[in-house]
Amino acid sequence: MQFRRETGWQQEWRAPLRKALDWLRDRAAVMFERELSGYVGDAWALRDEYIQVILDRRHDAVERFFGAKGQAGPRHEEKNKILRCLELQRNVQLMYTSCGWFFDDISGIETVQIIKYAARAIQLVRRVSGEELELGFIELLARQEQCGGGG
Predict the structure, then answer these.
(1) H/E run at residue 111
(2) Count of alpha carbons within 13 Å of 93, Cβ hemisphere only?
């Protein structure tokens, strides 16, 4: 089967989007490690174990997740902070969902969805650490116009 390209097909928007997402990912990683350093030895292992909560978000399952660490459980405010950090990382991973990259226009629903994941990650960084990443992210996206991309 051969695919036919539509007139005006272009993907110049992909490079600036990828740079903006990578920039956000890197800043989120630094914040993630810093904010969780007081609670857990290996923040990345905790992130990987967070799949347990993603698959079962009931209150008792979340409590089991925290109880499985073998320490006195964190206080309510600390749990919220930890969960926000873990949700941040979940959204960072979702930003790279493959369906967002295969189209000719950045405004397609799939690409818009990965930008929404990025927006949620930006919100969570702000909520947890007070860091403002939105303008930097937007500036990197704006470079699309400088690359000759339209869309």
Answers:
(1) helix 109-129
(2) 10
**C-alpha Rg value of the chain to the nearest Å:** 18
pTM of this prediction exceeds 0.85 = no
Q: How far apart are the first and last CA of the chain?
A: 27
CA distance 121 to 115: 10
Paired tokens of 129: 């650490």
- Both tokens of 76, joined, read 């309510």
How far, in Å, CA of 144 to CA of 137, rounded?
12
Taking the C-alpha atoms of residue 149 and residue 10, their distance in angstroms, rounded to an integer, is: 8
Amino acid in the structure at residue 46: L
What amino acid occupies position 64?
R
Out of 10-24, 35-49, 135-149, which region has the weakest mean confidence (pLDDT)? 135-149
